[in-house]
Model the fold of this input.
Amino acid sequence: MKSVTLKELSLLLDGVIQGDDTLVITSVATLEHAKAGQISFLANSKYRAQLEATQASAVLLSAKDAQDYQGTALIVKDPYVGFARVAQFLDTTPKAASGIHPSAQIDSSAQLGEGVSIGANAVIGANVILGENVQIGAGTVIGQDAIIGSNTRLWANVTVYHDVQLGQDCIIHSGAVLGSDGFGYANERGQWIKIPQTGGVRIGDRVEIGANSTVDRGALGHTEIHSGVIIDNQVQIAHNDIIGENTAIAGSTTIAGSVTIGKYCIIGGNSAIAGHLSITDGVHISGSTNITSTVREPGLYSSATVAMDNTLWRKNTVRFRQLDELFQRVKTLEKNLKTPD
Done:
């Protein structure tokens, strides 16, 4: 178990201590469930009522919230960011692998940097390059000519196909597949003719890809995920997509082929983005939204209808089908009103 004094945390976060700076903190917790030795945070005013009752030894607070709090606090600019940094500092997550397991299969042409760890039954293909301190989890397969940057961690049962490159400090969670074939076919008189997917995948630094997500290789050229991107579980990235820096994509989102998404975008879960379009920088897409055309202006975009009583939903579905007819009738009425007798 790691531990740190509140004074040490204040130096880490550039914060101001209100109370006992010698308190020892061992972990983080919510306001409601925190116990002695833990630090919590208040980042959302709707949890304000839990602040006075919390058993946390200390709380990360904004200067405004700290004014009325009588307990020990660490005052920071952004309590939620502070919580994230403290959680990182006290993180006790084990390594994906330690040392090189004797059952790992490593091709003689592979290059392993200093401090590389490879778990049981992992397979490292020909001409693979693993940077310093790379961790390869049990059962993970790294295909021919793949390159994994320093300090990148792949958890158990990840599959990295040939000609896939990952940058430094990436995290790839279990079940993710990088570099599988994109959905490319030509149709000849009803028969599907497969188009070989000869491109690769290029992933930048500090990218995190969630469990069971898939990133298809390019058909021609590469699929690109730029630095700082975070991708949740069960996300589909199709061939030749380009995801800009620091964009976040929530779970179960599907992105069709040849889509370009800009920097600093946030895509809500269960969204679907049609192929061959572009989304500019700074776009926020609500969950369950369908994007079917290019988005040229930053802002918030939504398309899902809200849940309602099933009977009412059925009625409104019928009315939705009648919208064009209703529009034409209104257009005709307006035209008649404008036409002189």
